[in-house]
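Field reference: sequence -> structure
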Amino acid sequence: MKPYKLFLLILIILALAVSLSSCIIIPLTEYYDFSVEEVVSVQFYDLRDPEAYRYSGFDASIEPVYTVSEEDKEEFLEDFSELKFSDAIVIVLAAVDPSFNYDDWVVRINFSNGQYTFYSSSGYGETFDAEGNRVSSTHFGCDDEDLEALVGKYYQTE
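Structure field:
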């Protein structure tokens, strides 16, 4: 075997070994900023009960525990826009899919066009159209304590 072919073969094997044994992580950050005019209402769901169904579609069976008053809606949206939601793209051959469940507290924001979106600290959220059909999902999550503190500012969380 010629030396350049041997070198190329070793380089390919080395590159393959490194790519299969490591991963690339690309951090992403999102801030959600909504105008008061586009938001009809904001609701909280308490999923701290371990028996609660936390997976996609829970909204059909669980009632919100609190709706932010019209007077507090603008202040809540300002506070919400300061929450840092994070996600990461992990590139690895056998990557595990991210979380598909909601955490203890879920915020539902209802929009004037009939759509509504769920936000959770666990890194899972969904957007539904006016007919209740899921439009999209996300894996952006915020800090558990930050979301609980925000909810606790408007609703007594015990």
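Note: DSSP finds three helices and eight strands in the chain.
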